[in-house]
Structure formats: structure tokens, C-alpha cells
Amino acid sequence: MAKVTMAQALNTALRDALREDERVLVFGEDVGPLGGVFRITDGLTRDFGEQRCFDTPLAEAGIVGLAVGMAMGGFRPVVEMQFDAFAYPAFEQIASHVAKLRNRTRGRLALPMVIRIPYAGGIGGVEHHCDSSEAYYAHTPGLKVVTPATADDAYWLLRDAIADPDPVVFLEPKKLYWSKEDVNLERRGALPFGQAAIRRKGRDATVVAYGPSVPVALAAAEAAAADGIELEVVDLRTLVPFDDETVTASVHRTGRCLVVQEAQGFAGVGAEIAARVQERCFHSLAAPVLRVAGFDIPYPPPKLEHAHLPSVDRILDAVDRLQFSDAPDTRHLLKGTAA
Amino acid sequence: MPVKNLRQTVQGLLPSLTPVRFVAEDGTPVAKPAPGYTEPAPEALREAYRRMVVGRRFDTQATALTKQGRLAVYPSSRGQEACQIGAVLALRPDDWLFPTYRDSVALVARGIDPLEVLTLLRGDWHCGYDPVATRVAPQCTPLATQVLHATGMAESLRRTGGDGVAMALVGDGATSEGDFHEALNFAAVFRAPVVFFVQNNKYAISVPLARQSAAPALAYKGIGHGMRSEQVDGNDLVAVLAVLTAAVEHARAGHGPVLVEAHTYRMDAHTNADDATRYRDAAEVERWSAADPVSRLETYLRARGALTDEDVAAVREEAEALATELRGGMNEESVPDLLALFDHVYAEPTPQLREQRALLAAELAEDAASPALDTEEN
Hints:
Chain A is α/β, with parallel strands linked by helices. Chain A has 13 helices and 14 strands. In chain A, the strands form 3 sheets. In chain A, strands 3-2-4-5-7-6-12 form a 7-stranded mixed sheet, sandwiched between helices. Chain A has a 5-stranded mixed sheet with strand order 9-11-10-13-14, sandwiched between helices. By secondary structure, chain B is α/β, with parallel strands linked by helices.
């Protein structure tokens, strides 16, 4: 066990994958000698050679399209999109080919590849550097979508993603790159791919979060506990596949649910989660499922972003709206039983 | 770089000033073919002729089947047979081909079962053949996106130590797409063994070439990427095969990618759903009929004594047999497996897909249990 940053955990995961599987290649913009703008690929070209980790021309559709061809040719490309919003030129390749080739060919051509995307805000980044773009990918059948919230998960989920037979969009929360944690890189501590983690147990309400919102949800749970409300915090880890089982079981226990996401709320992943929870847990719910999300605005400039991002206070306010003081209205249960 | 060397480098990348041609429209050999190219052996040309005749029959049959409602849509390549067959004959079976929706004739020439070629256009599935076994990527619909895949495949072939080559087929319209240029640039930087073969058939659906590009020829799009380029008469099979063979050998020898533009013409509308009379006149189509690639090669081979009446009759018989078999196959009702919709989205279906599959299975079971219900109610 050692204290490492999420950035170091990701770097180690890439190293271990390159070492263990010669089909693994790392490429993208500035990932070579520079080590990537966030240094996630630091030293990989030096240690594994230009053949295994290399810079490409500056063209995101080109990078992903090249990766498609190389995966068809038997390699396992791990490509980096430099920032969330800079991945958009590659969206056609991702939506029309990466996601669909296995289905198109009835399983004859698979695309085991990983598209790493530093995403989300909270780092004072200027426009185009802070988008939460997870909904676009999660809405596209054929993609798996991952976002780690801890350094341990960053390592193991990236290893799992690279070993996965399907293409994975791996969303790295930029603001967590430098958070230090205990990580066991020798022995697997993380849950299996596709399973959500309960980061904090609690009996009063379930808070569903992922990626950059998990630490905020945990801080809110800490604050709520001081007021006597015990929040259970579920970290989804993988948005696709989605772990209905863990989320549903938690809400059945607590009877209340709050979803936190940094992305703008309208038509977002949080909306999908809220719908799934009410479809599956209706009779266990004592209050409507609430969302705490970014506003429906383009991502704000650095000096304004704090007003946009879900905060501990905004989560606690939402917890207050989970109707703890209301007695459940059971009039509908009497319908038809008495005249 | 010294100016003299620079001039040589530029000259080496530029296409010839006029399209390379071996055989004139009337089937007679041109006086001076472009230097640096070798005329293919008569046996190769006879084989090309055979596949062009069979390919055209396939194409006209597919168009007819579409009019009968047997195909959802069919984009014809009639008039482009020299390109379709030349591309396939320039490749080895272990090379990779990345075709578009208009390249069905090339796929048949590559030896893929015509019924499997038409699976996409019949509407049974998105791709009917095995891309790995045939080393032919699924026919690509979004323009120029497959050009990047060809580059990636070529880069894979280069890295795994073999001497395989990838060829991407594109139309003139697709050269305006960003992916086309990104692919050329990547391929040139990596020196990937890939040939980009542009079939300039003069129209992108309805938009004529002049509205597509101001380049002197599309082949000049190579020089900006530092890529060797060539242009060829796309209705002269002899020239197409000579130029593509040289391009493939250039890539195979590790000298990097090549861009080849073939000047040809789409004789039919974009698809059966298109009305070409709205954007081009009959005289233009008539003019291109005179440049027909199949009769041109036939005249040329007959004059050289490389093709007899018996040969021609045998080839036509083979083409008719293929058409008959195709009609037979297409007239059999296909019954796609609806539950297969969920089978290949991922290697293993997600829990949600398993639920949805069960839902559809239950609906189908219900329908099967009471097949007459709908009819009675209606």
C-alpha cells in the first residue's frame, strides 16, 4: 500500500498493461516525450519505446479512426483525447464505428480499445477544457463508459478497460488527478468491472454519484451525519454497464434517493438514473428522486464555475427536500376499501 | 533541403499532367503510354474482362431487383467496372480492402458470395460477409470514415512484419471530408502501406465535381500531405490495373502511401431513389457511353487476338448464370432472427440488454401462440 495520486495510478496501469500485453499501444497528442499535458503517459515512450507509445498528428478523428483500423489489425490501442471538448471531432468515428463495428459484423470484428478522456471541471480551466460529456457516450449503444473516483479504481478500472473485449470510453476526472490515496497496485482490491461501490453506508437516503462528484457526495454525507442524517453514497464506477442491482438494493434500504452529477442536468445520466430508480423502487420511495446537477448552461468561465458545480451545500439542501418531516400520504391505499 | 532535391521531391509526388492511359476510347492502343508503367500481361487482362462482364451483370441485376422491391436500395457502379475490377486485381488475397456502399461489384470480384454482398442493401443485416476471412471491411456508409481505418490497418500490417497492403476506396465527394485528409496525413507521416483509390465519377449524388473542388485534379490533394499521387483514365482497365499495381507495389515495398485518382463516370443515378435528370443532361450521359470500359477492353483484346467469340460467349454465359442464381436467392424470403438484435452489441450482453431481449422474446412467444389474432381483429 502506498499513497499515490490518481495520475500516478493511471500511469502505472498503462505501464503494467504495456508490459504484460505486447498488443497494447498508447498514442495521441503530446503523449510521447512530453508525457501528455497531464503527464499521465509520463516516461512511457522513454521506457517502452516509440513503437509502443507515440505522438500522432493533431487530429482527433484521425486518432480514433487510426485506432479502429489498428484494433481490426489485432492491436489494443489506448488513445488519449487531450480534453473533453477536444474529443468532439472524433465523435463520428466513436458513434458510427467504434460503437457499432462488433454489432455490424455480428461479432466477427471486435474493437478492444480504450479512449481516455480527461473530463469535467473544477480546475479553473477556460472554455472547451471542462465539459462533462459522459451522456453522449453513455447514450451510444456499444460503448462501455467508465469514470473512476479513487486512485485505486483508476488503476484497476483502466486495467480492466484495456483487457475488455469491447471499446471503453474512460473518463478521467481532471480535478481528482492530484488527489492522493492509498492504493494497492499489487493485489486487486477494487470491485469487478460493472459493479458499483458503496463508499459510505447510511440508512436515511442514497446518494448516487460518479467520477468528480463522489468526493463532494462523501463530504456532504460527512456534514449530514453531524446533523444526524446518515447518507449512503454509491459510486457507480461504470456508467455502462449500469449496476441497477446495487443502486436498487440501496434505495430499497433507505427509501430516499438523490443523484449528483456535474454535467448539465437536462437529458443527462442523472435523469436516466432517477427514472430507473423510480421504475424499480416506487413502493420503497418516501420522496421523489431528486437531482443535483450542473445548470443547463455552457460550462462557465473559471471565476464563475463555483456557482455551477454541485457543492456540499447544494447537496445538503436537496437532502432537506427529501421530505423527512412529512408523514407519507397513504390515502391512495384506502381507495376502494371503504365507501 | 537544396532546391534541386526539393524540385525532385515535388516532381516525384505530383501526378502526371494528364490521366495515364493505355487504351483509347475506341479500343486502340495509345501511341505513347505514360512512362514508368507496365502493361499487364494478356492473361491478367482476359481475367479482368471476365470479371468486368460478370460484375456489370451483377450490377444491372441488383438494380432490377431493387425496382422489384427485393432490395431496400442499390447504389449502382455501372460505368466504373474498370475501377472496381482493377482495384481488386491489384491486391493479393491477404491484402485488405476498405470499400464503400458503391463498391459491391468489387466485392463480388473479390470472390464474396453475391448474396452476402447484398445482405446490407437487402436489409437483413448491416454486413453479410465475414470481414476477417475475406479481408474486406464492411461496406462503409459515412463518407471517408473508412479511409482512416484502412490507414490504421496498414499501420498494423507494417508493424506486424508482413508485407500486406490496405486499399481504401472513396468517391470524389468524400475527398472533401475531413477524415479523408486526416487519413492521408497520418498515412504519410507513418509511411503506412496504404493506397487511397479515388473513383472520381463526377457526382456526389447531385453535386458536380466543380462544386466539390477547385483542385486541378483530385490527385493533387496528395502533394500537400507529402504523398505520391497519380491520376488515371478510370475507364481504361489496362491503365487502372497498371497504375494500381504500381501503387500497391510502392506501398508494399515500404515506400509509403499512394493516392490514385481515376477519372470515370457514374452512368446510373446515385441510387434507385435518385433522379439524375434533375442535375445532368442526357447528352452528357450519352457522351460517356462512348467511353464504356467493358466494350473498350473487349475491342482492345479482340484486336490483339487475346479474346475470341467463344471466350466472349462463355463469359456472358457465366454472367447470366450468376444473375439467375442471384434472382433465385433474392426471391427466397429471408427471415431475420429478431433476438439476434441483442447478441453482438457487446461481447456479453449487459444486464439491461438481457432484460430487453427477454421482453422481446416474450412478445414473440405471445405472437406465436396466437398467430391468427391480429387477422381476426382486423
